[in-house]
Structure formats: C-alpha cells, structure tokens
Amino acid sequence: MSNFASSFVDFDIPNWFASEHLAGMLRGIEKEGLRVTPDGYLAQTPHPAKLGSKLTHPFITTDYSESLLELITDPKSSPKETLNMLRQLHLLVYKGMPEDELMWPLSMPCMLSSDDEDIPLADYGSSNTGKLKTLYRSGLGVRYGRRMQTIAGLHYNLSFGDDLFTAWQTQTPTAQSLTLTEFKNDKYLGLIRNFKRLTSLVLYLLGASPSVCPCFVSGIEHDLEMFNNSTYYKPTATSLRMGKLGYTNSVQEHLDIRYNNLPEYVKGLRRAIQTPHESFEKLGLDDENGNPIQINNHILQIENEYYSPIRPKQIAMSGESPTEALERRGIAYVEFRAIDLDPYSDIGIRLSSACFLEVMALYCLLSDSPELMPEEEDALAINLERVVNEGRRDNLQILNNGAEQSLESWMLMHLNRMQPLAALLDAHYGGNDYRAAVALMQGKAGHSESTISAQVNSDSKRLGSLWQLGFTLAQQHRDSLLQQTLSPNTQAKYEVLAEKSILQQAEIEAAETEDFMDFLQQYR
Q: 380: number of CA atoms within 13 Å, CB side?
C-alpha cells in the first residue's frame, strides 16, 4: 500500500507568499433546504410565487424537488458578506412562503410519505430548457429513487485572485512556458486532490447527519441501530449523508474520473456521459405512453449527475456544457460539496465553519499535491466510510500513506499546520476569525463530544427524536429570521428581481418554437 507519493509531507508556507496575495479571493454559497408543513411532512405547495421564477431567478431556485429550495449568493469578498447575503435570502424566503411552512434545518429529510411519488419534481415551466431540467430530475428519480434526492447540503465555492497565481508562476521555473490559465488549472487541481485526501477531516468536523428518521430507510437494507422507534442512527457516525445511505451510488464508484490534469478530467466525465449503462437501459427512455422518463440511458445523463465531494468549475455560457466551459476558459473556482447543513445555524452554516474551509482550501492549494491514482482513491474511500460511520469512536484508525494512524493525531497534525495560514488570512482581513476557527476545530478534533454530530445525537435524545429536534430548531430559526428586516432599498431590489425573473421565463416560453421531443432527440 505504501507506494503513494506522500502529500502534505512537511508543510511550510512558500517564501514568496504573503498576506497581500490573498486579495481577490471570492467565495459564494449554494444552500439547499426543504420546505415542510407544520407536521414536518414535505410541503406539496408549488414554489412560492413571491420568490419569482425558479428557472431564471439568479439567487432563489429549487434543486431536485419543487419543495427543495436552493439559495445562491453572489461571489463576495469576505465570508461575513457572503453569510449576510445568505441571511437576506432566508428572510425573503420566509416572507414569501405560506405562513405555516418551515425550512427544514437538517440535511436528512424527515416525515416523507412511504410513496416516492409524493415527492414532487421541480417544475420549470413549458420551455424546452425548463422541461429538460424536470426530465433530468425524473431520470434521477427512476434511477436512484426520489427519496435520496431530498437530502440537502451546502456547497462552498471559492476562488483565489490572479495576483496569487501570477506571483507563484514567476517563482516556478518549470511553469514559464504555461499560460496563466494553464498554471491556474494545474494549481486548482492540486487543491482538489488534496481536498479529497482531507475529506474525512471535513466530515468529522462539520458532519451533522449521524441519524435518520425511519421513513428515510423504510424498504431499504441498512445496518443502522434503533435509537428509539422514531430515530435510527449509528452511535458514533458523523455524516450518513456522505456514506452509502446518502449521495453515493455503486454505478459511479468505478468511473475512474481523475483530477491529475484538466483534459483527463474532462475526458473521464464525457466518457461517462456517452457510455450506456445496462441497468439504466432496462428502465427504458420513455414510459408506455411515449413520455420520456430519463434524458438518456448512459452512466450519467448530464455532467452534474457525477457526485464528487469537490468539483472544478467555470461559469457556463448559454448553451454550453460544464466541461465545454472548463475546456475553453479553464477552472474559475472550486466547489466544496461535502458539507452537511449545520442545523444549529439559522442559515445552515456558521462563520467559524466558513473560515475553517477557507484556511483548509489555502492549505490544500499551497501543499505539494502528487497525482491521485486509483489505488490511493481506494484507500481514501475506506477512510471516508470509517469516518462516516464511526468517526467519533475512541481511537479510530484511518489509513495514511499505507499505514494505520489514529484519526485524532492525523487531524491535529493537519490543523496545527494550518495555523500560520489562518494568521495570514487574519492579517489580510483584520480580526481573528480564521485563527479562532482553527482553534475551535482543534478542540473538536480532540473532543468528539463537542462535534455537531454528537450534539445532534444528544439533543435528539433529550427531545425524544430527530424529528422533534429538526422541528424545534426550524421554528427557532424562523422566529429569529423574522425578527430581522431588510432595508427598503434591498427589499425593493429583490422585488424587482423576482418580477424580472417571471418576465424572463415568459419571454423564453413565448420564443419557443421547437417541439420538445425534437429538442430532446438532438440532446440524446
């Protein structure tokens, strides 16, 4: 096992690097959350009209289901500004939703009915683009069941300024022949490989899904224990959302999509989109009435179906696929996807978690990052599974460069090395948010009872069930959000946006001339 090239050997901040190179960093958040009724069941109401069109609104849309809201911030120049915008969006949602509905604060849904068909697919209207989005969701439902698609999470998107990469390239004799875009691609992929190596750390520190409601596992095989008759759990689990019960699927396990260079990544992803898969072929493309039920029968219907804890991203232009955008303009930012909703925050993430993710991203970027090969990926998958299921078990061991090491000592080693980077971030932004975040995580690494997942278990026990915890927190968050106000100016800006988005959708639909089946045929 020990023939992995060692990453993170001894980390030293590169001598050319200084806090001014952090100028130009941007971050944004995409946060999902289910709308639920007062009895905790999934809301069956359509997306609230006051919130505008989910097809064209830039900040408020839906993910898989009509009841799964997705809130998207602009890229901002500090974590506080990002969280502030996310809070504004939550406030708008609560003002626009039916009065008795709540936003569910947990990643794992509760109180689903036993019938998957009761989970409404998101409806994006009558345009071909809108219908394709709904068809993609229909395909996910027939492939993996709709229940899995109601799991909510949070994506943290991050980019570094060009000054950092320019300074770095100047200091790198071997990189003189590369364009700045090629150099950035290379460094962002290095960050991604290292983040994959450290995903277990994120799941331990930020995981918040150690348990599920019985409805989520009814009819499927699982090895969870009964906490009581209204909650199943694993006593020392951290993030069941990221394990076999959640967003993983066996079809994607052997895709061998690699992150060692951009052409290789793009090629691997496209191969999966172009390769039919036997079990999806059996499902058929259309139902008995000739209505399409999935876009195609390939391993992936579209690129977004590929589930990875982190993705390289570029903003796609109209009519452009994500890989075309990456190929033409390179990596613009990375998307951290392994993050559970923090049920104790009214917006799903705390400032300390955001700051920690940024320190970790910088650490992953500046550390050596050898190529990541299937053998090492297999070892990382073993670690992930161990931390998902029993990350808080005393003296849990994980694999590190082929040898067993205690999870706690491994986490503390990395967190200690991140401290000087936190100090540089604080020097750039002012204050001590970043150092405080790393110190907080060091405390959690040494004391598993202070993790979010441990807190979820103890509060569920105290309140009687996971559902009761989710419901109690949802009401608290709603009340605290509704005590806040938007400035008249901000309120007006969002109202105009909502109206404009509805007009935009109407324009798209009015301009549509092509029959959907013809449109789909070209797509297939």
A: 21
Q: Give bridge partners of residue 124 from the DSSP assignment.
A: none
Q: What is the SS3 assignment for 313?
A: strand
d(CA 191, CA 20): 20
How far apart, in whole angstroms, are the C-alpha atoms of residue 33 and residue 39? 16
SS (HEC) of 25-65: CEEEEEEEEEEECCCCCECCCCCCHHHCCCCCCCCEEECCE
Task: Please report which residue ranges of 97-150 form alpha helices under DSSP H.
Answer: 128-144
| Token pair for 450 | 């202070």
- pLDDT band of residue 499 (cuts 50, 70, 90) is very high
pTM of the model: 0.96
Please give the Cα distance from 130 to 391 (Å, whole number).
Answer: 41
| Under 8 Å between Cβ of 379 and 394 | no
The neighbouring-strand residues paired with 239 are: 209
Give Cα 407 distance to the centre of its chain.
23
Could you report the per-residue pLDDT of 27-55, keeping only the tens digit for each?
999 999 999 998 888 999 999 999 999 99
- Residue 122: name the closest of 216, 57, 54 by CA: 54
The two three-digit tokens of residue 239, written as one number: 């993030």
Phi, psi dihedral angles at 492 (to 5 degrees) = -65, -40
Distance CA 381, CA 37 (A): 37
User: On the CB side of 35, how many CA atoms lie within 13 Å of its CA?
Assistant: 29
| Whole-angstrom distance, CA of residue 386 vs CA of residue 376 | 16
Question: CA gyration radius for the chain?
Answer: 23
Work out the widest C-alpha separation in the chain, in whole angstroms: 66
pLDDT 10s digits, 264-304: 999 999 999 999 999 999 999 999 999 999 999 999 999 99
**H or E stretch at 310:** strand 310-313
**Residue 493 to residue 329: CA distance in whole angstroms:** 31
DSSP symbol at 91? H
* Cβ contacts of 507 within 8 Å, gap of 6 or more: none
Euclidean distance between CA atoms 79 and 428, whole angstroms: 13
Q: How far is CA 321 from CA 130, 132, 172, 325, 518, in A?
A: 16, 14, 33, 6, 19
Cα 210 versus chain centre, distance: 17
Rounded to an integer, the average pLDDT of 434-443 is: 98
Residues 292-342: tens digit of each pLDDT: 999 999 999 999 999 899 999 999 998 899 999 999 999 999 999 999 999
